[in-house]
Amino acid sequence: MKYTLRKALKSDMPKVLNLIRELATFEKEPRAVVIDVNDLEKDGYGKNPLFKCMVAEANKKIIGIALMYYRYSTWKGKVLHLEDLIVNHKYRGNGIGAALLNEVVKFGKNEGVKRITWEVLDWNTPAIEFYKNRGVTIMDEWKVVHLTEQGIDNYLAKIDENI
What we know:
The chain has one domain: Aminopeptidase (3-Layer(aba) Sandwich), CATH 3.40.630.30. Helix content is about 35%, strand content about 25%. It has helices spanning about 15-25, 35-45, 95-110, 125-130, 150-160, and strands at about 5, 50-60, 60-75, 75-85, 115. The N and C termini lie far apart (about 60 Å).
């Protein structure tokens, strides 16, 4: 299969959002996506972009994305976080995910990051094997901690109660 990789354009964000929604459905969270195209355009292409995105394209159709942003490690310094690596289910198995991941790693190296991080669901065996086959370290002893929007409100309410 012939495809190209390139930096995402602002005009690509509707198609990027479609892939994000596809991933949410795959991860059994179809209603969890609350962002819209305007959010992606503003957050990725405003004065201070919050993320960078690469796309895989075939026949003028976006079939995969890698969305990433910088973090800072108090131990290592500049870190790149890969938020999502998504390939449309119809195109998986054609090397597109590997090509996108390769580009993320090259980008990180060129940017001088000390580490590249991402998460994978413990039940997503194909993704885990995909990453293991590339020699990455999957750190089972670390737990991802999330505070949702509602959780933030509850947390702050508890602080207020204790004042």
